[in-house]
UniProtKB/TrEMBL annotation:
Organism the protein comes from: Vibrio eleionomae
Lineage of the organism: Bacteria, Pseudomonadati, Pseudomonadota, Gammaproteobacteria, Vibrionales
Residues of the Ketopantoate reductase C-terminal domain: 188-307
Record protein name field: 2-dehydropantoate 2-reductase
An annotated Gene Ontology molecular function: 2-dehydropantoate 2-reductase activity
SUPFAM superfamilies, sorted: 6-phosphogluconate dehydrogenase C-terminal domain-like, NAD(P)-binding Rossmann-fold domains
Function: Catalyzes the NADPH-dependent reduction of ketopantoate into pantoic acid.
Amino acid sequence: MKFAMLGAGGIGCYYAARLIEAGHECILVARGNHLTALQQDGLHIDHADFHFDQPVTATDVGGLCRDHDSQSFHLLILGAKGGATQAMLAEMDDWLGTSSVPILSIQNGVTNEGLIEACVGRERTIGGLGIYISGHIVAPGKIKAQGAGQIDFGAWPTTALNPEMAQLCQQLSEVFTQAQIPNRLYDDVRYALWRKLVINNGVNPITALTDLKTGAVTQDPVLRKTVYTMMEETARAANAAGVPLKKADVDEMFDLICHFGDIKTSMQVDMEQGRHLEVHEICDPVIEYCRQTDEPAVTTELIARLLVNAATA
């Protein structure tokens, strides 16, 4: 199959390398020094169970639209930060309009799929996320990744509301499995997205604010309670959004992050490097949906405000 990885950062490059290693074609869409390194020196992946070091085809969004026929792709995978989704889709709008190629999001947050649907239609939208994976660009063209690297996905917003996408999702599941990418198909992918947001909202803002890795945060007696509280607020927001998350979901996600390993979150790395923080994509849905209930997300609101102030100080 032929793929394009839109936003080939740490995690996007890892998945792209897995697909390439399995014999598929995958064009990496990146920018800046990272793009230059990919074009000149190839892609280097360092993972406990997977090492990749070979030339790749890489371009920027403009080059993708100029030099490649959108109809030639079987799938576009959107791995960019959520804050870039709308602008990237707008830049690609004319190109996307020349085909019926579907788009799979593997991003953080619960708002990306709505933006994709608004651009290309529900029938071309696949919701999804990367889970059990941490990946960062340690130098242009060089990726350090850890974790099982699973992709959870499904027709957006549900198989029942987008049945024509079910067959492609099943085919993609088989392709991912053959490429040694663990995956899980959901009839209601919104459930998977909100479960992932439980982790993202629980630890990403606090690690960015404190500059502590996840292990240090979850072992600290005060911060540990704060993480759990923000996870509870996320589940409450999910319920307000019509996605039933229970205490068992919160407990499972809390146990997962406590035992995943001592890692830097993507938001922590963005804070260190002065990049855009995914506060709007991660914290704001929790805050907005909880405001519709009798219990505002007080802790998430506090941490988000402190984080934004710290980032702009």
